[in-house]
Queue: 2 jobs
Job 1
Amino acid sequence: MNQTLADDLASLRIDRTPKGPNRGLRGVLGTVLVLGALAGVVAVSKPYLELRFFKSEVLVTEIASVSPVHADVDITATGYVIPQATANVAAKVVGRVSKVNVQEGGRVKAGDVLFELDPDEQNSSIAVGQARAAADTARVATARANSAEIDLEYQRQKKLADSGAGTRAEVETLAARLKALAATIAAAEADSRASVAEVASLAVGSKNLRIVAPIDGTAMTKPASVGDVASPAKILVELADFATLLVEVDVPEGRLAKVKAEAPCEIVLDAFASERFQGQVVEIGPRLNRAKATALVKVRFITPPSALRPEMSARVSFLQKALDQAALREPDKIVVPASALVSRGGAKAVWVIVDGSIRLTPVSVGEAFGNGFILESGPPPKTRIVKDPRPELADGMPVKEKGAT
């Protein structure tokens, strides 16, 4: 064996010499430290990454508009303005509309002519009926004339028979003819009466060609047009009496005891959110809606606004005492919940939800009010904001309401 081969074999020999005790341990500890650092970075950055790239669930509240009479409110309910007197106007007969005297939104009085139907067909029917009645009257006159002639002959033949110059058979024949003519006259007179009654009926029907308003009211729908076919089954226009407008609200069964007949109320219309109106309970429904566990309560306006319209949304607050004029003039208080406020640089702000993301918006608040503060400057009422916001929130983060899918 030469020296080169011996060296090669020596290089393949396993080194069993014990190594230093700290060398392997340092490698393990280094790996553990690196993995721990990575885990820490992931743990710290995960919430921020989730908030930035995924929708985070947040609790939502809103900026509220609170009435100055808030302390006197027993219960608040929402509903709609509903007319109590309405009428669906239709024709009593079938006909084509020839004239329209009302327009959508127009006011009418009971008895006003709203529509007129084409009278040609009705006039033609009346003319035919009158001709038939005249013919029946002529037949009656003819039958009576024939009866008078036969009666004269009967009287003459009867005298002759009584004197022996005539026969009894001729007298009996004439008597039978008189009876037949009497029946003919009766039938002709019946036909004549029927024809006259038919003409009278057609004349009454012609009055139905003029369609009148059954109540005072305002046209709520677009009326039928000239040329449309009217019938008892077709509504030509809908009327509503604005003088009977009431606010109808649903009150939960559990709070119905707080609603009293003739109790004072405050009414706020969504269409005029900055105004408040005096109201009064006029009716509490005699039965409950079992499906919703609510009772219908009707409230009238003490002084209704001129722009009041059916189906307007309304909020009714049932009060312990009536509103005075000073309270009516006092503006609503804008309140921001204390749970939505955050501090940034010594100033107050809220997280406003806009199109599924959040924006930090500065606010200025005044004195405490209930569970919040009077908002002196900031977003308007009904603005949706984050409740109990987490400190890691940032501008532009996508969010969704907690519990929403």
Note: The mean pLDDT is 83.
Job 2
Amino acid sequence: MTRSSMPVIGLTGSMAAGKSTVARHLAKLGAYVADADQAARRVVLPDTAGLQALVARFGPGILRPDGALDRPALSAIAFGDAAALADLNAITHPRIRAEMEAELSKARARGMQAAVLDAALLLEAGWQDLCDEVWLVTAPEEARLNRAMTRDGLSHEAAQARMAAQMPEEEKRALADVILENGGSKEALFAQTEAAYARLEKGTR
């Protein structure tokens, strides 16, 4: 993609690699962050077409008593069945992409110096075409598994299943323009982030 006056960073990373930590730091550096996780929650709020489509595909068992989406119930179905996961993505990904496009338009209208499309499934969903560069946050697999188990209360098997549903790490590395290694301290991660961001800013002047 030809670099625009507001470069767009596609920020991704395998589960528990530290992507959200980098996104927060980029926001402190002045970038506009469009969070795909937040968009994913918006498109399946009660009374949305997204939630209605999920119920039509997976049944009313994915709803809580108050009518909201029961995420653990849906995850239990989708992450154990490749066809179900494909259907889930087919329902949600186009809606999330539309939200991300609207967020990037908002950032341009505000004259932001850069924008970040923060999405764990950036590459799997094919959203890199919205970005000028793809930045991958990575960490050793065992460290990522341990973080995911601690953060999300997952069993080792459940954490592995979620990781297996994502693109393999080596494929992500091959597609990334910038690789941020998160195997050490937070300060080291931030130093890599700041160096990459300074280079990107310099390229737009």
Note: The chain has a mean pLDDT of 92.
